[in-house]
Amino acid sequence: PTPSTAEIREKFLQFFESKGHLRLPSHSTLSPDPSTLFTVAGMQPFKPQFLGAAARFPGYEGEHKRVTTAQKSLRVTDIENVGRTRRHLSLFEMLGNFSFGDYFKREAITWAWELLTAPQYFALDKTKLHVTIYKDDQEAFELWTQEVGLPEERILRFDADENFWPADAPLKGPNGPCGPCSEIYYDRGPDFGSDSWEDYAQTRESARFLEIWNLVFPQYDRQEPRPDGTPVLADLPFKNIDTGMGLERIASILQDVPDFYGTDTFRPIIERVAELSGQAYQGETSVSHRVIAEHLRSVSMCLADGVTLSNTGRGYVVRKVLRRASRHAYLLGFREPVLHSLVALVVAAMGEAYPELKQNEAQVQGAIKAEEARFLATLESGTQRLDAMLGKLEKGQTLNGAEAFMMSDTYGFPLDLTREIAEEYGVSVDEAGFDKALEEQQERARAASRYGKSELFGEVQDVLENVVREHGATEFVGYEELVTE
Ligand code: ATP
Ligand code: MG
Ligand code: MG
Ligand code: MG
């Protein structure tokens, strides 16, 4: 029998409970620390513990150096990948097990293998599992080959740009806990791609080999670089474990469907979109069905977590995601708000695991409906205007920045949306020109106000900025709103 996504989540958490881990609830999608707007990984709420704080958690007695969670995670950088790559969602659940100075690589690696392959757990075919390690991590290499018995040819060694987390390279990532990592991939087979595992060393991109689980070994604290630019990786007080497995990715494998959208999480939403629009879902080419189902999930979750739609910060990110979904609904022929009517399906899929969705269902629906109505007021004329401008350009040409800015200013089309539509014409957008037009408008607004930034106002502004950092931004009615509303 095919396990449901809920069952897979539960099995993961139970497995680590059986290994002495405390199960903690997910943190909100609003990031617990200032390095990102949204929570991007399961480890984020535990940075203090990695940095040496006592492993005590409100509401739980005693110390817990082993913790397991399913963390709802949102990656702004992956939003535009939705509908384009097979493996990216904007909101996903990261299943994780954490050790705060307790067990280290040996247990992390052998337990991961046990969970993935044991018949009573995920029962994956061992021959389909492949791993990458950080190039110098001989310890991980030996554990994979000697303890687990993985053949050497299924292990690739990568630089810090791939196998050091969180970072593009140890020199660049955000300050804080970090370390080398080892990633586990599942070979979905030749139907998905004709490339080989050796090819992956060069391509770093594969439809066939799907990254499912990242085992991170945080043992460093990345600090401010020295004045001459030399990076500073200080030892943490102890060695830690931080892992992250994509629930929706493992679900697509265990449910034996080609991608996320075939899993029990997304299918009911997609089917409803097909039914309401009268347009059958045809898999990978039905980008609009997919974007709607996916974006609705992240928008609903963020709104349930207390984000308010606005023109700055988190509220703006969520607004962009919702407007992108809105445009895809328009492409399917909807001319009235419809996304709000799908919220119940999101709640049905995720409300059990995330009760905040159930509790805030009415508000979430209301906020989505109001935003849909607001955007629909300019979507049609905006689309016509943009189509006309793009229609005049040849493939490979550039839409000028002032026009892209006008789309945002007059029609409420976020730059990302204009860029996406332009790409459909093979046209790029002059983003420097957009920024310039935006700056000029802000300059005009400043000149129009009687007072410049006086010294006193500067201080007040600093205080306000601190408040915003700590408590999140409040609604800022900016340039876009003045014109569109
Ligand atoms: P990718 O290389 O595919 O973008 P990643 O290396 O950025 O993934 P990690 O930061 O290592 O991902 O996160 C741990 C796990 O979370 C991944 O192995 C994957 O299973 C899952 N994951 C990461 N990003 C996404 C996403 N956008 N959608 C769904 N699952 C994701
Ligand atoms: Mg990524
Ligand atoms: Mg990766
Ligand atoms: Mg990874």
UniProtKB/TrEMBL annotation:
Keywords: Aminoacyl-tRNA synthetase, ATP-binding, Coiled coil, Cytoplasm, Ligase, Metal-binding, Nucleotide-binding, Protein biosynthesis, RNA-binding, tRNA-binding, Zinc. It is an enzyme of class 6 (ligase). Binds 1 zinc ion per subunit. It catalyses: tRNA(Ala) + L-alanine + ATP = L-alanyl-tRNA(Ala) + AMP + diphosphate. It is found in: Cytoplasm. Its main location: cytoplasm. This is Alanine--tRNA ligase. The gene is alaS.
